[in-house]
TrEMBL record:
It is found in: Membrane. Pfam families: GtrA_DPMS_TM. GO terms for cellular component: plasma membrane. Residues 19-170 form the GtrA/DPMS transmembrane domain. GO terms for biological process: polysaccharide biosynthetic process. InterPro entries: GtrA_CellWall_Glycosyl, GtrA_DPMS_TM. Its main location: membrane. The chain crosses the membrane at residues 20-38, 58-80, 101-122, 147-168. Signal peptide: none annotated. Keywords: Membrane, Transmembrane, Transmembrane helix. This is Putative flippase GtrA. It is a multi-pass membrane protein.
Length: 186
């Protein structure tokens, strides 16, 4: 297969992947802004491990860092969905907004749940993937373990989001919508 054949066959997917990456990069900025604002409002990253409440019947707790992860995900997920819907996977035969948003949120939520455990691992001193001192600590914003763990976790979970959203949210859901409305999906 010649390079021209490869481009004709896979060029569209490559362009979508690049657009998805650009949207994702913007989403990372949105997520990180949420993390910085929430941490600043909570007194800084040195308070990221504050226990908000104990999980009844367990030795585990919900910590502020987990709330930051969830809030950052929700805001960035909505931002990314709208940009991906209107730019990356734009289609005149798109399903209704909510019909595409719920699957996008579901996919993102699974990745966010996996990411929550990864982020906890990066910030828990007893974890084998704990981000070690002296490179990561809470004494300076640029070296903040809290911010780096947020960023590393986003990078790790992004490929899951691309593949599943491309194949399910923006292909399967639109195809099902097109079949129900009697048009062909592109």
């Amino acid at each position: 297969m010649s390079p021209a054949d490869l481009y004709r066959r896979y060029g569209h997917v490559a362009r979508q992947f690049v657009k998805f990456g650009i949207v994702g990069g913007a989403g990372v900025l949105v997520n990180m802004v949420v993390a910085v604002v929430m941490n600043k409002l909570h007194g800084g990253t040195q308070h990221a491990q504050d226990i908000l409440w104990s999980l009844p019947g367990t030795a585990y707790n919900l910590r502020f860092t987990s709330v930051v992860w969830i809030a950052g995900f929700l805001v960035a997920n909505l931002f990314n969905f709208q940009l991906n819907r209107s730019w990356t996977f734009r289609d005149t035969k798109a399903a209704p907004w909510l019909a595409e948003f719920w699957p996008f949120l579901a996919v993102g939520s699974v990745a966010a749940l996996v990411g929550l455990f990864i982020k906890i691992g990066f910030t828990n001193p007893t974890s084998p993937i704990y981000l070690p001192e002296p490179w990561f600590h809470e004494n300076a914003g640029l070296a903040s373990r809290e911010y780096w763990s947020q960023l590393f976790t986003i990078v790790i979970t992004t490929p899951i989001n691309f593949v599943v959203n491309k194949l399910w949210t923006f292909r399967h859901i639109r195809g099902r919508h097109a079949a129900a409305s009697g048009t062909s999906a592109s």
